[in-house]
Amino acid sequence: MKVSLILATVERYAEVERFLEKLDLQTYRNFELILVDQNDGDPLRPLIEKYKNRFPLLHLRSERGLSRARNVGMRRATGDLVAFPDDDCWYAPGVLEQAVGYFRREPAPDGVTG
């Protein structure tokens, strides 16, 4: 079961860096990160270069606005599950494994929020 993570971000660097660091520690590795960048310029380029070979990472651009960014990301998502982490959060190392385990045990839910 593949997980698509759509991370919309604007005017954050340290927070995105922390998210990527923690994402790289995930025990469940069948995921993709779709990073939807709403920044002026290219401030996230160093982070993208650092992590692009550690896990699937697609860097997209969109106009500002959370819904706009999520829609841009959704058009490119290929996962069986889609999640929308905030750009100032991070995941504990086993969280994707727990989420996938839940959906394997309980295939009927259309969505889960928390």
Characterize the structure shown.
The protein has 114 residues and is of the alpha/beta class. Helix content is 32%, strand content 19%. It is built from 4 helices and 4 strands; from the N terminus they run E-H-E-H-E-H-E-H. The protein has a 4-stranded parallel sheet, with helices on one face. The longest helix is centred in the last third of the chain and has 11 residues, at 95-105.
* Order of strands across the main sheet: 3-2-1-4
- What is the residue-averaged pLDDT? 94
Poorly predicted ranges (pLDDT <50, ≥5 residues)?
Answer: none
Which radius of gyration do the C-alpha atoms yield? 14 Å
Helix content: 25-40%
User: Structural class given helices, strands, pairing?
Assistant: alpha/beta
Query: What is the number of beta strands?
Result: 4
Number of DSSP helices?
4
- How is the biggest beta sheet arranged? 4 strands, parallel
Spell out the helices and strands N to C. EHEHEHEH
Q: Note the gap between the termini.
A: 20 Å
State the gist of this model.
This protein is α/β, with parallel strands linked by helices. Helices cover 32% and strands 19% of the residues. A 4-stranded parallel β-sheet has the order 3-2-1-4, with helices on one face.
Defining traits:
single chain; 114 residues; alpha/beta; four-stranded parallel sheet; 4 strands; globular
